[in-house]
Write a structure and sequence with these properties.
The complex is a heterodimer. Chain A is mostly helical. Chain A contains 26 helices and four strands. Chain A has a two-stranded antiparallel ribbon. Chain A has a two-stranded antiparallel ribbon with strand order 2-3. The longest helix of chain A has 48 residues. Chain A is globular and about 115 Å long. By secondary structure, chain B is mainly alpha-helical. Helices cover 78% and strands 0% of the residues of chain B. In chain B, 14% of the residues are buried. The chains are: A mainly alpha, B mainly alpha. Chains A and B meet through helix 26 of A and helix 1 of B.
Chain lengths: 656, 100
């Protein structure tokens, strides 16, 4: 019997925070709301740290029931099939736990500053805590169904937070888009779960994996495991914004910036990677599904990166960058290097969370403006934001020794072993990533300030709800926003060193098994050569960005003009939204309008009901004249009726 | 002994008188009496058949009819009194609405 860690507390604490703020927040002061929000997300983080501290006192994987009571935690019991509210702790979920609670807590702190002037301040913290609850449920679940609850729950929280400023039309429709696109992925996920239930009779991770392990790898052709794997990947595509379901993530930037940082960069969108990594036992035995994962990841990585080059909205650049980086994680998973994928997930949470928060700080500084063409020269105005954002940019570009270098290099190395094609595309993507990230940095912080002076009475772009404090120049954010930036910057610098000497992989080895045996085939020389290539490529990207956006700022327009139609295609995100609208949305809307609404609903259902009612009315309109109230007419009816019956009987008698 | 057809003809005449009164008359009490006449016309044929075939069932049936007729008279007359009190008429043509 091992020690009890009270894992159930971790998701329940933020839920309590959400409940308190949700029910009482409206009448409470902002200070009270922030205290509640920070306290409950903070204690969840502290508890996660405690769990990490006491990790050695339990045998992993460690399972616990809700409230530590098996009888209370029964959820579904049907024959031999049971689902419990129970939690599962191993090295993988511990990493996710620390990332979610840690980054989540930092973003909670940041939100206090960023959202302070918003009229729905309490609502924001309610949703944020609710999100934490669902995300932690997802990460800690010991079965696929509970994971699915968390999965749907974070989708709900994401919907609520994207549409946080729901009076803005674009925000409301972005929320709907995210929710609907995710439903498509969830459909695949659910079918996958049904297949698992049908063939393995359980959704419990431990039980399913025990039954899957003895199965042979489906190298010869697609089979059950391949089907399950691909269906799970469909779900992951929706949640983690991969081709073909990535379209919702750029639109999700309509939400407040802390939300973009927490949900749409650091945690929720990585749920797909986590799910695939959690199901690695299935994927490892389904090479075709793994190839699908790798190909989708690789394509998404380069596809989204190219779109990122042309975007001018600071958050949109980061959104496409997120899609691209998630592609890297799937590339790693597809190459069988799950620990590399999780490693990148972790470092990405640090530097992309930081990038978004810094972008929020920039937006805050220039009074709600998000267009980079109207920024520039902010270096001197907001030095702390500049410094932290610079660190994050260097980190994501993959320049050593920052976090992004370690994880990205690990992925590229593992991808190279799987197939050099992945590696080539990965390196090209790394080059593009470095280019567009430095483009963002240079456009924002170098050159001259191109924006309008922020006037004293609010500003032109007040849609973001935070009032400025009445001075003309861009101004630095308050310490409550800068502190999380600094912490994340430190993590972005040192976070990669856990991967030094494969420590991270060793840590996760009990979950994924060691891949070192496979790595021994390739020489260390190759590894260092590849590493050198990716670093050079990253520096080249930065240099190119410097040339185009600092030393010769007139060049980009010329290049854009010379590329012509191709540039237009990239600028318009390859017209994917338009194609989807034409191919899927319009036929659906038209079909629903003409067939379902005008055809079935109006013509069949409405008309059936209305005609039945009209008919009854017409008939009774005629019949009611018989009920005149005149007694003698009734008597006449009775007499003639009786006469008819008698006449009939006599006629029958005669006929016989 | 009076032959059966005599009874049946008388019974038919009584019943026809009842039907005619029931249809033609406007006074509620007359209509009521016509109903009684029809009932008793039928009663006469019942007892005639019972005597002719020596079957007791017909006579018992007559008792039932008389019980029902008595009950009907009690209820019916009460209703007629109520109608007269509220509408001050016994003409059925003027009593064509349940509500006042």
């Amino acid at each position: 019997m091992t020690e009890t860690l009270n894992l159930w507390l971790i998701p329940v604490l933020p839920l309590a925070g959400a409940a308190i703020n949700g029910f009482l927040g409206k009448k409470s002061s902002r200070t009270a709301v922030s205290t509640i929000g920070l306290f409950f997300s903070g204690t969840a983080f502290v508890w996660a740290l405690t769990v990490a501290w006491r990790l050695s006192s339990v045998t992993l994987p460690h399972q616990e029931f809700f409230l530590n009571n098996e009888h209370l935690s029964h959820w579904i019991r049907s024959g031999s099939f049971t689902v419990n509210f129970a939690f599962y702790l191993d090295q993988l979920s511990l990493v996710m736990l620390l990332v979610v609670t840690g980054v989540g807590f930092l973003i909670h702190i940041y939100s206090v500053g960023y959202m302070w002037d918003d009229p729905s301040y309490y609502r924001f913290f309610t949703y944020l805590n609710l999100f934490m609850f669902f995300m932690l449920t997802l990460v800690l679940a010991n079965n696929y169904l509970l994971m699915f609850i968390g999965w749907e729950g974070v989708g709900l929280a994401s919907y609520l937070l994207i549409g946080f400023w729901f009076t803005k039309d674009s925000a409301a429709s972005a929320g709907k888009k995210a929710f609907i696109v995710n439903r498509i992925g969830d459909f695949g996920f659910l079918i996958g779960l049904f297949l698992i239930i049908q063939h393995f009779g359980s959704l419990n991770f431990a039980e399913v994996f025990t039954k899957v392990r003895p199965l042979a790898s489906e190298t010869a052709g697609a089979g059950l495991l391949t089907a399950i794997g691909i269906l799970l990947m469909v779900g992951a595509c929706g949640k983690s914004a991969q081709i073909p379901l990535y379209v919702w993530l750029p639109d999700a930037m309509e939400g407040p910036t802390p939300v973009s940082a927490l949900i749409h960069a650091a945690t929720m969108v990585t749920a797909g990677v986590y799910m695939v990594a959690r199901s690695h036992v299935i994927f490892e035995r389904a090479p075709i599904a793994l190839t699908v994962v790798a190909v989708i990841g690789t394509l998404t990585a380069i596809f989204a990166a190219t779109i990122g080059i042309t975007q001018t909205d600071i958050k949109k650049v980061l959104a496409y960058s997120t899609v691209s980086q998630l592609g890297y994680m799937f590339m790693a998973c597809g190459a069988g290097a799950f620990s590399a994928g999780i490693f990148h997930l972790m470092t990405h949470a640090f530097f992309k969370g930081l990038l978004f928060l810094a972008a929020g700080s920039v937006i805050h500084a220039v009074g709600g403006e998000q267009d980079m063409r109207k920024m520039g020269g902010l270096r001197t105005y907001i030095p702390w934001t500049f410094l932290t954002m610079g660190i994050a940019t260097v980190a994501i570009a993959g320049i050593p020794p920052l976090a992004g270098f370690w994880s990205k290099d690990e992925i590229l190395w593992k991808a190279y072993q799987a197939s050099p094609v992945y590696w080539v595309i990965g390196v090209i993507t790394a080059f593009i990533t470095s280019f567009y990230m430095f483009r963002l940095l240079f456009m924002t912080f170098w050159g001259d300030y191109r924006g309008v002076q922020v006037d004293t009475h609010g500003h032109a772009h007040s849609a973001h709800g935070h009032d400025d404090h009445g001075h003309g120049d861009p101004h630095e954010s308050p310490w409550v926003m800068l502190a999380p930036l600094v912490v994340l910057a430190i993590l972005s610098v040192i976070g990669g060193f856990v991967g030094y000497g494969n420590h991270f992989e060793h840590f996760l080895a009990p979950v994924f098994g060691s891949t070192e045996a496979a790595a021994e085939g390739a020489s260390h020389g190759t590894e260092y050569a590849l590493m050198l290539v990716s670093v050079v490529v990253a520096l080249l990207g930065a240099a190119l960005a410097w040339t185009l956006y600092v030393s010769k700022p007139q060049l980009p327009e010329k290049i854009a003009a010379s590329l012509g139609a191709f540039y237009d295609a990239v600028l318009n995100k390859y017209y994917v939204d338009e194609i989807y609208a034409k191919v899927f949305v319009k036929p659906l809307v038209d079909g629903s309008t003409s067939i379902l609404w005008q055809g079935i609903d109006r013509k069949v259902i409405d008309d059936t009901v209305n005609n039945a009612a009209d008919g009854a009315q017409h008939v009774s309109d005629e019949v009611r004249h018989m009920q005149s109230g005149n007694l003698r007419s009734y008597a006449g009816w009775i007499a003639s009726g009786a006469a008819l019956v008698i006449a009939y009987m006599i006629w029958r008698g005669v006929a016989r | 002994m009076v032959p059966l057809p005599y009874y049946l003809v008388l019974s038919g005449i009584l019943f026809a008188c009842g039907v005619a009164g029931f249809l033609i008359k406007r006074n509620i009490i007359t209509i009521f009496m016509s109903i009684e006449l029809m009932l008793n016309g039928v009663n006469l044929s019942f007892v005639a058949f019972a005597a002719h075939w020596h079957v007791l069932a017909g006579q018992i049936f007559v008792f039932f009819v008389m019980v029902v007729a008595a009950a009907e008279a009690a209820v019916g007359l009460a209703i007629i009194i109520a109608v007269y009190r509220t509408r001050e008429t016994l003409n059925v043509d003027q009593v064509n609405l349940l509500k006042l």
